[in-house]
Protein 1
Amino acid sequence: MSGNLAWLIPLCPLLAFAVILLAAQRHTRLSHWLAIGGIGVAFIFAQLIFWTAVFGALDISSLRAFPWLINGGAIAALGLWLDPPALVMLFMVPLVCLMIFIYSTGYMSGDSHYGRFFAYISLFAAAMLGLILFDNLLAFFVCWELMGLCSYLLIGFWCERPTAAAAGLKAFLVTKVGDLFFFLGLVILYAVTGSLAYRDLFTPEILAQLAQPGYLGLPVTPALVIALLLFGGTVGKSAQFPLHIWLPDAMAGPTPVSALIHAATMVSAGVFLLVRMFPLLAVAGLPSSVIAYIGTFTALLGALVALGQNDIKRVLAFSTMSQLGYMVAALGLGAYAAAFFHLFTHAFFKALLFLGAGSVIHGMEHGYHHSSSETKFDPNDLLAMGGLRHTMPRTFATFLVGGLSLAGFPLVTAGFWSKDEILAQAYGRDPIVFWALAAAALLTAIYTARQISLVFLGTPRSESAAHSRESNRAMTLPLLILAGFAIVLGWVGIPEHFPVLGGVIPNLFEEFVGAPVFTPIELPVVPDSLQAWQPLATGVGACLLGLALGWVIYGWCPLVAGASDRIAVGMRRAYLGWLYRAMQERFYFDWLYQHTIVWGAVALAGLSARFDDAVPDGVVRRVAMVVRALSALAADFDEKVVDAFVNFWAVLARWVARSLNWLDLRLVDPVMNFAGWLGQLGPWATGSVEPEVPDARTGPIARLLIRLGGTLSALQTGEVQDYLGLAFFAAIALTIAFLL
Amino acid sequence: MQFPILSAILITPLLGALLILVIPREDVRTIRRVGVAFAVISFVLATILWIRVEQLGAGALQLVERYPWIADFDIWYHVGVDGLSTPLIWLTALLMTLALFYSAHVIEDRVKEYYFLFLLLETGLIGVFLALDLVLFYVFWEIGLVPMFLIIGIWGGKRRDYAAIKFFLYTLAGSVFALLAIIAIYFNTGTFDIVELARLQPFAQDVLWANLASWGLWLAFAIKIPVFPLHTWLPDAHTEAPTAGSVMLAGVLLKLGAYGMLRIGLPLFPQMFRYYVLDVPILPVLALFSIVYGALVCLAQWDFKRLIAYSSVAHMGYFTLGLCAAAARSAETQMAAISALDGAAWQLFSHGIITGGMFFLVGMLYERTHTRDLRAFGGLSGQMPVYYGLTLVFALASLGLPGLAGFWSELFVFRGTAQLLPLAAYIGVLGMVFTAAYILWKVIQYVFLGTFDAIRWGTLTDLAWWEKVAVVPLLVLTIVLGLYPAPLLATFDSAITALLHVLP
């Protein structure tokens, strides 16, 4: 089968987006069928391509490419890049998208912008699929930013709520800071290598060139600078410390969006970027420890904060941040396949958890509408839930599967296999990372058990919870399917050295993804720790201990209505109230950024505007003032000096003229008259004819002048446009004459 | 002899203007129709021109016409186009068509003068892009000035007199220096021929005169672009001008300065450019200032139109940065220089369509609400969904979202800058964050999101058909160029490659 069919995969949702937006926005059923149709076709092709590739029948020898950019005569094409990581993503993304699209028909029903919602998520799917499939980093970046746009639009989807609009803005701007680094890394890479196509970049020559120190004359390699900058993009998009603050706020969007964008796909795109650029990271050398530590810190921070949250979606948001930290840490350590495996399984169980949370919220809202007692109501509040296992059994069962997978419950869940792999890799490479990740795993298990206990166990702590109802088929069916994947997917990645099970099923995932196929350099040596039993025991122990702790605290003797959170109480008793407050307040990062960076920028902006008015424009105004003052002075001078001088001459002249006139009348005239009289005497004396008076008739030239004068005075209408008209007819005539 | 299409394009708006003069002023319908019709004819001719240029090759000057004008001083009527000027001519014709079409539904006052002046303006603008003789260039440069002065001064907002006079004096001050520089160049080389001058390199040996002449030219161009700190005429002029005037100002007039830099400034004085980029880096610093500082000033604006006006300062800063990068090139970094100038040229076109569209949209809102105060709005997305959608696309394009036209200039400018002036690239990208902030926070959030004041704005209507006609072509261009930049990029690229190729 030809790989060119993959072109259709991003194209179908894109088409759906365009058609819905332009034609079908007001037709609810049509819009969701278009969206589901678009992603459905993409899903079918994706599965076809994935399985043909798995069986080695995918023909990628003649992939089409289209000219996209031209620079100095060199053409950069847009093509496809169907390597194993892309294919794995191709298996996961359309599947999860399809499930979430179907779920959305239930979750969003009755929304006033139903059609617009499906248009936006279709555009998102198209961008995500493009990001996976295209063959160059520039297209990756374009799709990456388009996803950011969709994220912005969908977080702020209920934009009449000011918090939603603010959250969208925050998400966009914070990730934009990360994207700035990505963009810089991208242009530097472009500048250094002259191409952004993976096939050009990941060649031994180019990688060797990138590994040459001396970037900008500094003792660093371009690879290091570029890798760190690109990692900045990951930090923004995958909500890593210190740019993690946008992700919890992003929960203001509809829950399917949280599942799709802020759990399964977009946020993991940051990790996928590192997967894609892995050869570059490998030759860059140093940043790996930076990456690993940032990932580890994020994993720990997220897990700790998740424990202090009472909003069902915020717990999951911090959990996502924490799990992404795992992946980033693994990549930093060079455990490429393990990170990618966790990305893969996490997408399924986290999407499942979010959709389950959405189902719970829906059920709570339903209960609220059927009970009339409460006035203040937050459908996301864990403390107001309880006992939902009776009213929402299917949601409970699937949420349990997702939760156990997140906690890494041994053997049966997908999350176990991928997390175990990361821990095993970390064990031999960096003990700090290993123990921090193990601690995060413990915290993960605790907050998961806490969440499940608070939501589903015990008795309802509010009227809404008591009156809640199971969601409809459109919502529970995707839950069931995703729950299935959250279990079985782990089995494709069972390590060979695993006790008993190892080798029974080959490690399909690692065999398929393996090392990045195009890496021409040696990967970090895989340590022997993979065979060690300690990481396995630590992981399993952390999980079981955490689950047990969580259950003992919250599940054994469930909370009653109005009781305060036991963790809060316990920590206060242990004089850790400050820590709990910090956990609840997300360690004050938002506050800190708000009061430093945001306020600083706004203040700087205000200062710039004032400066602009005062200095560049002020100077101009001053100059104008000076010129005006000078001109007034000149006018004065003109009046008092120049004019006076002129007037003096005029007076003088008049005086002289008068004198002359007097002379003329009194002296010259009589003399001349006398002379004339004398002159006339001559002819008279000689007896000739009378002296001839000059002819009064006008000559031909004079006549012409008089007539012209008449015409001109007729033209002289006083109307400006007539003058202009004349002028321009003259101009036309001149132009014609000129052209001839 | 082939059909003189360049002269035809030049003369068509002028003929339209003259025709309008003879129509009685009461016959407003005919005046509007004639005005729009002549704009459309120019647009069709410009389209034909572009096709011809693509056929002939965009890398060289094509369709050249050359006739003696004032033979005693060796001044010629010398016009010609290549891949750099052709798209700009097309852009001018397109924006003028849309502006006059839109105005036909809006302007009621002194319609005759309005259409006359706009068509006259079009001739001036196109003339600048066509001219290959310095004197001819200067004449067209000045021709464009007067109609715009009158357009702002007659149909402008409350402070129109101040804005119009400021605009006029500022630009005139620049042109005086340019004229002196042109005369000096003539006395040095004995020609006004721009092509020939690029080869001759005036004042190659005379540092003082090279400085004087190049700064004279740059001053005129920098005021028009505008480059910080010569930009303060722009916010006033753009804000006070009528909608169509702002569209032409931002869409085309700013490009005259940029085009002058590319066609005259850089080719005639590459060494001076190099000196003031690398040795005494005044120009890159000013470019960076325009970008970052311009974006910051935008962030502090509360007047919708003034914000968009300031955004032009920041956006044209990318052009200047690209120009600086190209000036810093050496033989090995030719490719990066081409890239930077490709991006700079692309910015001229994309900024024209994006900011042109943005000014249309701002004007449409102002027509309805008679306020430009961002704080007065909120939640309009529900009341005016089509208006919201259109503004959103232009706003996103303006912040350089990939997939829309504005992105490519940033990419290519920074790709070139990253290699030629690395430090400037690191600083310049900061502007992108501030841009995102003022676009999404100030424009989108304050106008469209949040709570809706139903009492005040409940009667607002969404866009009428003719308003959509004015904006949608620009929107389509923004999206198509954003997704598939290759054709236009190829046109610019061949011209830029040729331009840089002849430089020493």
Protein 2
Amino acid sequence: MKRFAMATAAAISLLATGNLALAEYPERPVTVIVPWSAGGGTDATGRIIATMLEEKLGQPFNVVNRTGGGGIVGHTAIKDANADGYTIGIITTELSMYDAVGSAPLTYTDYSLVGLYNADPSAVFVRADSDYQTIGDLAEAVEADPEAIQASGANFGGINHLSWVSMVQGLGLDGAQSNWVPAEGGAPALQLLASGAIDVAVVQFPEAQGLMDAGEIRALATLGSEPNAKHPDVPPVTEALGIDFAIAGWRGVGGPAGMPDDIVATLTGALDEIVASQAFRDQMGRLNYGVVWADGSEFADYLQNRGEAFGAAISAAGLGQ
Amino acid sequence: MDAFGLALSLVFNADTLIVIVLASAFGLFVGAMPGLTATMATALLVPITFYMDPIPAIAAIISCTAMAITAGDIPGALLRIPGTPASAAYVEDAHGLTRQGKAGLAIGISICAAALGGLFGFAVLMSAAPMLARFALNFSSFEYFWLSLLGLSCAVIVSRGGVAKGMLSLLLGLFIAQIGLDPLMGQPRFTFGFAELAGGISFIPAMIGMFALAEILRNGRAGLQIVPQIKVATPFAGVGAALRRYRLNLLRGAATGSVIGALPGVGGDLGAWITYSIAKRTSKTPEKFGTGHPEGLVEAGATNNAALSSSWIPAMVFGIPGDAVTAVAVGVLFMKGMEPGPQLLTVNPHNFYAVLLVFVLANLLLIPFGYLAAKVARYIFEVPPSYLNAAILLFCVVGSYAINNTMFGVLVMLILGVLAYILQSRDFAIAPIILGIVLGPLVEQSFTTSMTIARGDPLGFFERPIAATLGAVTVLIWLAVMVRAAYGAWHLRMSQTHNQ
């Protein structure tokens, strides 16, 4: 009888803790807004993060692509969501620029920052049959007539556009003269390049991998100071053209401002473990994405610095208000 | 051929086969529920595929989507709620057959044409994937612009109630597509400061409202009559005869679908509309279209699944996914160490063949599952109509709520449903409105991108060979329609003066 009572007590206490655990965040599915189209880099990494958060926290993390307006639609949707922790999103580089460019009054202060998980430089691609064999050839053509070279790789004023403008600027030209074709993301821009509608695509390596392997396009240069670990043959633009260049794209997780601290802490804790895990590094490595980590306050500092650096670059490029 | 043997052993083992059957059953359920989409089904499957081997994981996604998209035709046929924008092209014919008491035939034709189209798509994948992928790479914003205009023109031409009213319907759809943030600079349009309008009008609540709610309203007013379903030994009786009779349509639909489907982004939605209009133009009895005529159903149904198979081509060969479903699938491929790209065909051909075999199985499974669905479906019509209508209304509300989990979707469904009821009672076609909503953003985006590339020169739209061809075809269709209208008016006037 005593044993039965103990067993009952144990069962009750188990049930009780079980109930307590159930009452913790998240109790129901969480929506993860990705502000860019399916198939791009933000979508790919966002889906990895969502799947792993789902494993860690035991509730579905459903990825929703809210595209349009160069990421403004999605970023606005994250900002305007209920700050209950059940709508979060992947925030991207463009958030460092909207305000400086004057395209939308969005800054990192509009978000509860969960963590930074990725930073990557873009690269310059041309069609395989292009006349430009090296980045030097392309630089010469741009110097001859910056308006004649049509480039794309996502929206007007986005990281890829800004990288391109900075390169043109670095060649001693007026960055505002460069000819940029806005696209919905990396994949549509690559389609434009492969179809011969434009001359240059500025996107990140993983987005271009399939077309590179197929021999349809070539990489001319990495837009950074270091070569990409997976593509050591592609020269960094600092080395090839002697341009000082350090603009890189970043991706992080955030929610609407004013999310409860304990929920942000739960998410940050889970994301910290995910980013530190070998499984995440393997998947990011396989997809060729760089892994970095910064939690809430470090992330805020990072974004403040970025905001200033991008602001300076944007006004130098003649894109500011 | 070693690779093929290896692929056989990868697919024909208990694990993979069980996964395929279960995923198909899941897809059937999701697809047949109005408002639940194939994208949703795939997204729900991803966490489960995490624990599977690569081939079963991919098999789960392929068989689930193939089934879900085809099963979207079932509520279309029974309740006039199309499951996908593609099935909206022929929903009138499918539902028309049901109203004649031939629900089994309608579902049977949809399912069998889809299965055969899917198998045709498999043959194309098997033999011409790299070629077709290379062809699809030639499509830039210029080609997309003309292609989407061509699709919209087709929707107008086939619409019942005449071209002029079809055009007005289309313009209404394009206007609805304008609501929200503009795709170039993110400026709000027609939002009147409402945050929810800034996200735009999503086509699923619009589709549910304009087809299903409008139908309920019409039934309620007309005093709904029970449609006695013809009792036959098997629900698929007559399917074979219909498919044999329209075998040319079947083949043409599947072939067109395979090509259009390979274009990233638009293929799946557009294909059925284009082939439905081809079927109508070439038919001996075009006046029967839209009233429950199997001809267009056969051709467009085959297009649907052929396009579904070939929509995987750009995703697998170049890693450019065309829609949310293939994007999810590309993610799974990556996660399982099968990076999409040409090396998928060369380095590990057994994996590629295994994926193809899964396509075959998934399409073959459509037939028994569809048979089951058709057999069960008959009982729906034994429910008294007032209860049935109440149940449909419930599905309308749940389905439009589920898209973004907001009441805004329900509001959109109600408003557009009432609007569609009014328009329909004045003989305006509904289908062009839906296609306008679906393709509006693509038309606008491809136009602005093209104009940027051409630096504002409209002749740029005719400078590339494929774009010029598509453009010429589109303009010729417009001219033909205008000439016919002018001739009709002239003829009418002549006969009137003659009579005087």
